[in-house]
Specification:
- The protein is mostly beta strands.
- It contains no helices and 10 strands.
- The strands form 2 sheets. A 6-stranded antiparallel sheet has the order 1-2-3-10-5-8, with no helix packed on it. Strands 4-9-6-7 form a 4-stranded antiparallel sheet, with no helix packed on it.
- Strand 2 and strand 3 form a beta hairpin.
- It is globular and about 35 Å long.
- The two termini are about 20 Å apart.
């Protein structure tokens, strides 16, 4: 099944999970999975949130950022993959000068 992000409408979400600024995303969703490409401009973040019933995978397409998962900070750059296991909490922050572009998969349990 082809998921064509180029033809999807982009939504802008202010203060996602009480984060800073606005995150924009193109999202595919079915009952089992959420798949998206998102953009965090410089200084923006996805606030700390808990994954009680699912995990989350974030692959960095471009930009630089920082992930904080259960209190552990990890630097992110293009080609890195951040994994937040089920039962953990995490946030992602753009600490670079360019947009942080992420490809994200969230299995819906």
């Amino acid at each position: 099944m082809l998921i064509d992000f180029k033809t999807m409408d982009e939504v802008t979400i202010p203060n996602l999970n009480d984060g800073q600024g606005c995150v924009s995303a193109k999202m595919f969703r079915d009952p089992a999975t959420k798949i998206m490409v998102s953009k965090l401009p410089t200084g923006c973040s996805i606030g700390l949130h808990h994954h009680a019933s699912s995990s989350e995978i974030n692959y960095v397409i471009s930009g630089t950022g920082k992930a904080i998962c259960d209190g552990i900070e990890e630097q992110l750059s293009a080609g890195d993959c951040h994994y937040c296991p089920k039962g953990c909490s995490h946030s992602i922050i753009n600490v670079g000068t360019d947009d942080l572009i992420l490809f994200t998969v969230v299995p819906e349990q």
